[in-house]
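ok so heres the complex, two chains, lmk if somethin looks off
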Amino acid sequence: MTGLSTLFTELGSTAKAPTGLVPFRFREVSGDILLTNFLGDWLFVTQDEFRALARGELDSASPLHDKLASRNFLREGFDQAKAAERIAYKKRFLNWGPNLHIAVVTLRCNETCVYCHASRANMDAVHTDMTPEIGEKVVDLMLQSTSPSVTLEFQGGEPLANFPVMKHVIEYALARNRAYGKGLEFTMVSNLAMMDAEKLAFLVDRKVQICTSIDGPEHLHTKQRILAGGNAHREAVKWIERINKAYIDIGLDPTLYHVEALLTTTREALKYPKEIVDTYVGLGCRAIFLRPVDPFGFAGKTAQIVEYDRAAYNDFYRTAVEHILDLNRRGEQVLERYGSIFLTKILGDDDPNFLDIRSPSGSGIGALAYNYDGKIFSSDEGRMMYETGDPAFQIGDVFTSSYRSLMKHETVRALVMASIREAQPDCVNCTYTPYCGVQPEHSYRTQGTIFGRMRESTLCAVHKGIQDFLFDKLRENDPKTVEILRRWTTVRARTHFIHASSAS
Amino acid sequence: MSFHLGEGSVRIEFDEGLYPKDAIYGAAYVFIDRCWVHLDRAGDRRIQVTLKSKKPGADTQVYAGEFQNELLGQAWRLRIVDENKKLVESITARALGGAAGPPGLDELLAMDIGEETAFEDPLGIAMSWEEKYKKKGKGEGAKAEAEGASGDASGGEKAS
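and the predicted structre for the whole thing:
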């Protein structure tokens, strides 16, 4: 490779030290050099331009000087007050406290999945059901959050297996929130195989957003997700269609209101990038989240079946997203979620507050996970680790913990400090630091330390791979593609699902 | 840096000027699940680490290499944290402060206010001005005056 590896050796002894620049980081992307500064402004320069910069030969009358000035790379004319405002706006999530509260209402599940992160229990393990009393305590703690809006997410196991408690918790939360007046949302992550008309009517009536798992085409999905006595894919598809129709029946816009589906990319899935995208589009999904497999729960034990090299994942991602871009060019409105998160920060000068890709991460201060038995964790991944024998991320329980004791817990403090990107090896020099984030629980699970060694991290490889791809697209600067990518950063709020109750 | 392989163990020596002691502790801690770890002073500004494997037959040369890499990582991280201390503190304080919010009634009720602690006055709030800023010996008096001046400069409420 030419480029950066030889560039600095060519500078020669006559080079002057560059002056007048704000601190920036750089990375070669497809032959050009990407510069980013701490505000998240970015700029591509050619290798010749970069060489001139490195030699301290920036001509104040040159187009490069103007480019650098327009993107806040020069000290001269740098507006400090505006910069402080922008940073405060981007980091405003730090004022909010945990808005995502994950309640694992049971570990029981009727499906067996090859990559199960949740450490499911058999359907007769009723001792893993959350009790109504614990559910109430979860709500009481959740409503004490400093966040003005909160989302209660029901997970399992299969949450529909403990539907009576879920119902009770929803009714209790609605009643209790009258005193708090928070923007309150409910979501449920379900395989849908235990859904029936009565449950659906309740969920639609109480505005519970429904999210399910689709691994791709039927042959792939059913190979990875076994439903005893049934077909996991057909059940999910059947209910996706019925739920989407129920939304239309009550007058909601189907382009905005529909079942969300999540993918877990296994080794087998890497073979079918286009088929997976087409399956999602066929189901009416407007967003696909190409998530790699996590190392938690059963997936830690089945790694030899489901895991893969992240270079292979990056190839899969590029093929799938190129296909998504093609579909967009033909008028289909569909986006890739990872891309949209990063692009919102790259193009939109904003932060979508996605808890695993922000700095500091949302562990504890952005999300809490409540186990069926009342134990509280800094994240659902922390809870998953507890279920496989490691209690490192338990920060309390609903019986004895106060809300402030959870936020001030030493584990939460350590997780915050470990996930500030500007203070970690590798990240401190990484060009993508302004847009990136890590999940310290992932580093702990895979590397034994919450601080992580990023150049060995599979999560870092994924984040770098995706940002390399996106910046390469921005470097090519095809107007149609850039317009599509910009559209992915547009957020349409699903206000129907918000229970906006005013405090009495 | 030097290392010496023994039977089931490895001994490594470090220059304390090159590696901060905290980094050595940090790296040693990472090994305590696999090894019995012993730290000792080998000479002037030299620290000796002995790793003795808990499992028989372990490749202790690999342990030595891993320890050195871990030590480098720990040392570098300490340096970065040191350079960015203000930034880390400010983000952490903002993150935890924003999430925890102000103390509520429960926290006030949970405070330990008993007969022995109720009248503690560590900030000297209950003290009179004369008592708090009275002239002391030459050195102490100057210090007290300086403190009083800074108090006035920041609003002067103490004087009223």
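quick notes: Chain B has a mean pLDDT of 77. thats all i got rn
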